Amino acid sequence: MGTKRKLQMKTKVCGLKFTSNIEALAKLPIDYMGFIFYPKSSRYVGEELDVFCLKNIPKGIKKIGVFVNEDLDIIMFKAKKYGLNGIQLHGEESLQICESIKRNGLEVIKAFQIDEEFDFEKLAAYRSSADYFLFDTKSKQYGGSGKKFNWGILKQYKGKTPFFLSGGIGADDVKDIKEFKHEQLYALDLNSAFEDVPAQKNKNKLARFLKEIKMTTKNKYAVDERGYYGQFGGAFIPELLRANVDELRENYLKIINSKQFQTDYHRLLNNYVGRPTPLTKVENLSKQYGTNIYLKREDLTHTGAHKINNTIGQILIAKYMGKKRIIAETGAGQHGVATATVCALFGLECVVYMGALDVQRQAPNVARMKMLGAKVIPAVSGNQTLKDATNEAIRDWIANPESFYLIGSVVGPHPYPDLVTRLQSIISKEIRKQLQEETGNLNPDYVIACVGGGSNAAGAFYHYLNEEKVQLIAVEASGLGVNSGETAATITIGDVGFIHGSKTMLMQDEDGQITEPYSISAGLDYPGVGPLHAHLAVSGRVSYISATDQEALDAAKLLAQSEGIIPALESAHALAALDKIKFKKEDVVVVNLSGRGDKDMETYMKAFA
């Protein structure tokens, strides 16, 4: 019970229904708002709840509907009508109800009424169907009693599911809350003790309490204990993969944070990968755009792209976990080459899945992978691109659970998005140090990167996420045009859904079926995006724009002929953003040049013939 909390607590203000009160509280640093749909409650929303008001609540605040023994159809109808992010079940709801709600993409908070006789063993049954538990004071009216229970009882809770602490918490409880220690304490549920009248919360009283309790998180863009970035993330996987994913989740942070890993990782980055990569000021391009443009030269790494940062890290994790066979997926082939490279270095079997179409258009990388000893298996389903390669890799992992799946981007089930982001964060770490040496300032005005799944952008943005003055620009591939039907601009036209084990933004039709993406760039030809990027887009922290095939080709030609640098087609999309932004003369603009253009020469030659 004395374990230090991994993250500072979040807050949920529950029992709201009046528009003016909701709008006022939305300006406070709270994480959840709760709306009670139980008719017998004195805080029942009734007809008071304004749909338009709820839609305008800041994206960083999750909307939770509270129900008691309600029919599933009614719960789902209300969730859709009010745009709820999660459901709190405060009655005797079945496991089946919880599972059905979770399958529909909503967070599930299962509430339990606590007294001295409560049996904590019953919680085990809800472990896989509830994202969080909520512990409230036992009462006849299913909560809302305004009374506290003995928090010492929670010493009996030994589970791993994080919980909300509820039950009459008020402004006088700051000292007790700070002294209460439980490693699974996730959030405080604040309700009646902060009311002037039922459902009308006192904003000033709440603001003082939040300030005293110091609820603000250190990094509001970091993944939480359940693998979520805001509403996005998680691990939506077949039961056959659960043991594999859990094994990695339980070990990756221990390994990454170990002295041995850090020593081995940085030695390989420096002596094998060729880091730090240069931060090059491109003088001719800077003059053309009337500003100061720097390129972070990931194209100069061993294998020619940022992908090696991740594969070096993951191969070490695989080695420490005793894995002998490595599975990977690849689009443009750079991740496949980087994986084959590190497998050769460590003497491990390597199987790479690649869309059959990508095998044709990225022939040089296929040849490199084979020369490095990898077995390249074409994926012939679907559009025969990255999505289909990923599907095949996951099937292989199910069939061969002793293998290690080395994912190439910030996609997939938790912990992969966080794992890959951490390994790629070396990019922004170096940018900060190099900029300070070059300009005397750690922070640029802009950081620009292309986004498919999003690993190079996640790495380039990472150390700037909490630097709100730094403008972060992510460039998607719009193919033949955003509205052409031949595009891969996920954030621009996509919607919330599930792909490859996580909840994120993806391109889908009205029936929720994933639509096929298109881009001239194989590495951006993916119908989804990593959950971190979905969160950054919804929260407004990162601006997501798009570039067409032609705009990327033009940008690549300009860089080649003005600076003598041929970029990968993926990186060319980031460069295309330079024509879409009006820069000031004194601005410092960093473009992450994620890869070199050798692999794309056939495409370039056809385009420029």
TrEMBL record:
N6-(pyridoxal phosphate)lysine found at: 307
EC number: 5.3.1.24, 4.2.1.20
InterPro entries linked: Aldolase_TIM, PRAI_dom, RibuloseP-bd_barrel, Trp_synth_b_CS, Trp_synth_beta, Trp_synth_beta/beta-like, TrpB-like_PALP, TrpB-like_PALP_sf
GO cellular component: cytoplasm
Cofactor: pyridoxal 5'-phosphate
All copies of domain N-(5'phosphoribosyl) anthranilate isomerase (PRAI), residue ranges: 12-211
Pathway noted in the entry: Amino-acid biosynthesis; L-tryptophan biosynthesis; L-tryptophan from chorismate: step 5/5; Amino-acid biosynthesis; L-tryptophan biosynthesis; L-tryptophan from chorismate: step 3/5
Its job: The beta subunit is responsible for the synthesis of L-tryptophan from indole and L-serine.
HAMAP family: PRAI (MF_00135), Trp_synth_beta (MF_00133)
Homology family: Belongs to the TrpF family.
Protein name per the record: Multifunctional fusion protein
Organism annotation: Ancylomarina longa
